[in-house]
Design a protein that fits this description.
YaeB-like fold, four-stranded mixed β-sheet, 3 helices
Length: about 100
Amino acid sequence: MTRYDFHPEAALDLEEIWDFTAEYDLDTADRVVTDILAAIDRLVVFPRQGHRRPDLTSRPLRFTVAREYPIAYAPDEQPLWVIAVMHGRRSPRVLAAILRGTE
């Protein structure tokens, strides 16, 4: 049984993170993605551990951070539904727009 699944845009986010990081160092790119996936694995066990972000979305999503990447997810979905994996240096307005685009 799959423990989590990605919104298509979130899967692309993860690929883009790896691609960007791999331009500088393949091993680091692998470690970054591994760390993000490990954080998502921990969410499956305790999906409410993340925090709400009403400044970004009114949807019942929660957020956690792996390295500098905020992960938006739907804690009540089975399997856990990862909505987005975003770079934390993006402006909150851009993050909100990304989340609106994943509805």
